[in-house]
């Protein structure tokens, strides 16, 4: 078969894909009419994750890997959301940060993004309905003090409704080619994460710290002899060329949370993030784990720290134990364990339940 024959086949397939996408958009519109009539949320994270898992399963054995299937359908669903409603997503900015990258990974390119200067502003935008959802870093990030973010749940009625694991893939970006680079700008954590690569590939370049990926990209945009390290979305936003990708010395995954005004309903495969207060670290951790185990609750992650003045619900509770557990807070055994903890006099804050994410492929800003 000739090259032209193959291209004609692709053209025919593309024509069919466009027709089917338009048919899909018509059905999505009908669903949107019903949701608006019944006062339901346009975006449903629990339905999205179920759909993506189903599509990945259907694609097993084909040439498209899971990450590609998810990326393609994320943009299809993003375009559908944009058709139904001007969906607005607040995130911890500025543009080009890892939180921005995580927001796009979750919601695609077709929705409207609202960068915010701090955690409090993200929460306020969502609570005031200026934004539909917010995206904030929750683990392994230097985009602000993540611990401070948890205090905001006491002031706002928002809940975590989705989790976004983001493989941290650091890139080198510039206006021109690698040979023109004389200095490299980057956030300190990004520079540190790519230290070995930079030392090996650009040993004679000046290394200059910047406040964020977007600031580093701005320096590279202003100086033909400069490059920046940071997120792929920083290069996309600034219009810079990607000279190298995945230059980080070790593969890491940062986690981000989607916060909304309504909790995510159970899906059958959920996680719950909560905090339990206690008197002292060793006892609080051991007693909490004991009670969870007695109720058949699996603990996925746990950490503990001394409580600040705004964190402790009781003067005698000097420790906060933060846990991620398997299951949904509205259903046993998690709901039973939460009730038991409270009966024992513990302060329990449930930050939210959300579909258990599937990690795609392999931050700090």
Mean pLDDT: 87
What is the 3D shape?
Answer: globular
Largest sheet, strands/sense/barrel? 5 strands, mixed
Query: What is the CATH level 1 assignment of the largest domain?
Result: Alpha Beta
Structural class based on helices, strands and sheet pairing: alpha/beta
Q: What is the architecture of the largest domain at the second tier of CATH?
A: 3-Layer(aba) Sandwich
CATH level-3 fold name of the largest domain: D-Maltodextrin-Binding Protein, domain 2
CATH superfamily of the largest domain: Periplasmic binding protein-like II
Task: Give structural notes.
- With 365 residues, this protein is of the alpha/beta class.
- It folds into 3 domains: 41-167, D-Maltodextrin-Binding Protein, domain 2 (3-Layer(aba) Sandwich); 171-250, D-Maltodextrin-Binding Protein, domain 2; 264-355, ACT domain (Alpha-Beta Plaits, 2-Layer Sandwich).
- 42% of the residues lie in helices and 24% in strands.
- It is built from 12 helices and 14 strands.
- It has helices at residues 3-38, 45-58, 66-84, 98-107, 119-127, 146-155, 188-193, 195-201, 213-222, 232-238, 281-294, 334-343; strands at residues 88-92, 112-116, 133-139, 159-167, 171-174, 183-186, 206-209, 226-230, 241-244, 253-260, 270-278, 299-306, 319-326, 348-355.
- The strands form 3 sheets. A 5-stranded mixed beta sheet has the order 2-1-3-10-4, with helices on both faces.
- Helix 4 links the parallel strand 1 and strand 2 (112-116).
- The relative contact order is 0.14.
- Mean pLDDT is 87; it is low at 141-145 and 360-365.
């Amino acid at each position: 078969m000739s090259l032209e024959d193959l291209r004609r086949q692709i053209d025919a397939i593309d024509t069919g894909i466009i027709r089917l996408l338009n048919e899909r958009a018509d059905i999505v519109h009908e669903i949107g009419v019903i949701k608006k009539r019944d006062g339901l949320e346009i975006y449903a994270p629990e339905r999205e994750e179920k759909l993506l898992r189903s599509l990945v399963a259907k694609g097993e054995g084909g040439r498209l890997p899971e990450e590609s299937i998810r990326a393609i359908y994320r943009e299809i669903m993003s375009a559908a959301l944009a058709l139904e409603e001007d969906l607005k997503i607040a995130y911890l900015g500025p543009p080009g940060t890892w939180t921005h990258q995580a927001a796009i990974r979750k919601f695609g390119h077709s929705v409207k993004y609202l960068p915010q200067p701090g955690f409090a502003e993200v929460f306020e935008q969502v609570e005031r309905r200026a934004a539909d959802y917010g995206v904030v870093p929750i683990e392994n990030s230097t985009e602000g003090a993540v611990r401070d973010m948890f205090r905001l749940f006491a002031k706002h009625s928002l809940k975590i409704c989705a989790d976004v694991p983001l493989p941290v893939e650091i890139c080198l970006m510039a206006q021109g080619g690698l040979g023109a680079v004389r200095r490299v700008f980057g956030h300190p954590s990004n520079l540190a994460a790519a230290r070995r690569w930079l030392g090996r590939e650009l040993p004679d370049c000046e290394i200059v710290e910047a406040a964020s990926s977007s600031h580093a990209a701005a320096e590279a945009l202003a100086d033909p002899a400069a490059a920046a390290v940071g997120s792929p979305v920083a290069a996309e936003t600034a219009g810079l060329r990607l000279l190298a990708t995945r230059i980080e010395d070790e593969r890491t995954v940062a986690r981000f949370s989607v916060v909304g005004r309504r909790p995510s309903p159970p899906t059958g495969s959920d996680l719950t993030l909560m905090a339990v207060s206690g008197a002292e670290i060793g006892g609080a951790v051991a007693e909490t784990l004991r009670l969870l185990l007695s109720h058949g609750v699996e603990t996925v992650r746990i950490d503990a720290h001394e409580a600040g003045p705004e964190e402790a619900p009781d003067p005698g509770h000097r420790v906060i134990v933060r846990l991620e557990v398997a299951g949904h807070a509205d259903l046993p055994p998690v709901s039973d364990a939460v009730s038991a903890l409270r009966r024992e006099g513990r302060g329990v804050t449930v930050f939210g339940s959300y579909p258990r994410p599937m990690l795609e492929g392999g931050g700090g800003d």
